[in-house]
Amino acid sequence: MVEHLQHYGVIRSKKVSEVMEAIDRALFVPEGTPPYVDSPMQIGYNATISAPHMHATCLQLLEENLKPGMHALDVGSGTGYLTACFALMVGPEGRAVGVEHIPELVASSIENIRKSAAAPLLKEGSLSVHVGDGRLGWPECAPYDAIHVGAAAPEIPPALIEQLKPGGRMVIPVGNMFQYLKVVDKNPDGSVSVRDETSVRYVPLTSQEAQLRGY
Ligand code: SAH
């Protein structure tokens, strides 16, 4: 899977290939789901684990903001796959936080992480996953060098911009029918620059009720 993503230029750095090799996707997909096929897979509760090429794209975009000691927030952490990747990249001196609004997914993501190479970081406390509305971010560990949002928001939640550190970067899908993966950079003077990276298709960033109703 990693070689395939390198061949197609989705993975362009050693760090991203190393972390995607270290965190085995097979530990994060439901039993009976093919782990290394490049498409999103159902994980229950009207949610999906993103396709490997989307995980790789987001890791590439955030690589410079996932250096050892940095703080990273994963909103809509789902299976915990990217949260675990972030934790490995920022290391024990850093902080990786996942926020997910379905309690059952938080519980299973913690089980997944426990089986993975990120388990010691979960034990030490530099990696944590919480039940909460990710549109509000996770102020306790703010400001963040990197914020990833794994579900499409109608607009960029203001709390997430607030919790981004100057020099920090957020990657967030925005839109309803037509979605773009936006790269939001907070400049050192606190101003914000936004650009579209690519068109994407994510499940919505919404309320727990709307999601469980089927949107
Ligand atoms: N990156 C995750 C993506 C999971 S799909 C992975 O690859 O496993 C998107 C996730 O966002 C779902 O798990 C869904 O439950 C969650 N979500 C949607 N709206 C949310 C909100 N307002 N707060 C927290 N999580 C939310």
UniProtKB/TrEMBL annotation:
Give the signal peptide, or none.
Answer: none
Q: Which NCBIfam families match?
A: pimt
Quote the protein name from its UniProt record: Protein-L-isoaspartate O-methyltransferase
Kindly state which reaction or reactions the protein catalyses: [protein]-L-isoaspartate + S-adenosyl-L-methionine = [protein]-L-isoaspartate alpha-methyl ester + S-adenosyl-L-homocysteine
Per the similarity annotation, which family is this? Belongs to the methyltransferase superfamily. L-isoaspartyl/D-aspartyl protein methyltransferase family.
Q: What is the lineage of its organism?
A: Eukaryota, Viridiplantae, Streptophyta, Embryophyta, Tracheophyta
One of its Pfam families is PCMT
* Record-linked PANTHER family: PROTEIN-L-ISOASPARTATE O-METHYLTRANSFERASE, PROTEIN-L-ISOASPARTATE O-METHYLTRANSFERASE 1
One annotated Gene Ontology cellular component of this protein: cytoplasm
Q: Name the UniProt key words of this record, in alphabetical order.
A: Methyltransferase, S-adenosyl-L-methionine, Transferase
Enzyme class, one word? transferase
GO biological process annotation, one example: methylation
Task: Tell me its EC number(s), please.
Answer: 2.1.1.77
Q: Which domain of life is it from?
A: Eukaryota
Q: Per its record, what are the GO molecular function terms?
A: protein-L-isoaspartate (D-aspartate) O-methyltransferase activity
